[in-house]
Amino acid sequence: MAGQIADLAVAYQPAALVRVDGWVRGVLGLRRVDWVNYQFHTGHRQLDGLVRDARAARRAAQVAERHARQATRNLLTGAARHADLSMRDLAILVGLSHQRIQQLRTADVDDPRTAFAQP
Question: pTM of the prediction?
């Protein structure tokens, strides 16, 4: 197994993918949760396609989750200004538990940067 960052003209020859991932993140200064757009070439065309499809779907889900968090934040902010809705009503509107709505509202007041860190 080998890792290569073509744009940086660097390569690495570890024994496992987890080591390649650690090396790439170290070189690029990325955290474990940051997305890396890997292109895998296993030598098995079907496996490469399955990996590519799964990674594309997971990335799309991450982007959709980020959008959902922002839309929920907008709803909670707008509801606080424009409507007198209970937490339970907001929960039904969004499809979350009323406990989660309370957590999001409390987190948003305490620290807007971490309000939607949890899915």
Answer: 0.63
